[in-house]
Amino acid sequence: MTLALETTTGLTVRLRLADDWFEVCGLDRLIPGRGVAALLPDGRQAAVFTDRAGRLYAVDNRDPFTGAAVLSRGLTGTHRGRPFVASPLLKQRFDLETGRCLDDDAVHVTTYEVKAA
């Protein structure tokens, strides 16, 4: 979904956690291509992204290769039409829709359903 700038005022980004939605931040805090880290109620972190088309993505912020909470600081891009974030540490790429590591099929990160409301 693409939202016109004038319609985004007051919208918040929310992640689905179990059976409820958790408010992360205002939609106006997201900049295409840059991530935001969100602390979840259970102590984990999520990395939240938007792209230039206004699509929202959320994945676990923890890099499974290093254990560091850094994916929100990663570079975003596309590979064969799939949106990804590349870890700023070892550069492995994670599909933002599925969480699958594009560089090692045995590794993945958790993805979250995300919406602006």
TrEMBL record:
InterPro entries: NirD, Rieske-like_NirD, Rieske_2Fe-2S, Rieske_2Fe-2S_sf. It comes from the Bacteria. PROSITE patterns: NIRD, RIESKE. SUPFAM superfamilies: ISP domain. Keywords: 2Fe-2S, Iron, Iron-sulfur, Metal-binding, Nitrate assimilation, Oxidoreductase. It holds the Pfam family Rieske_2. Residues 22-117 form the Rieske domain. Signal peptide: none annotated. This is Nitrite reductase. It comes from Streptomyces griseorubens.
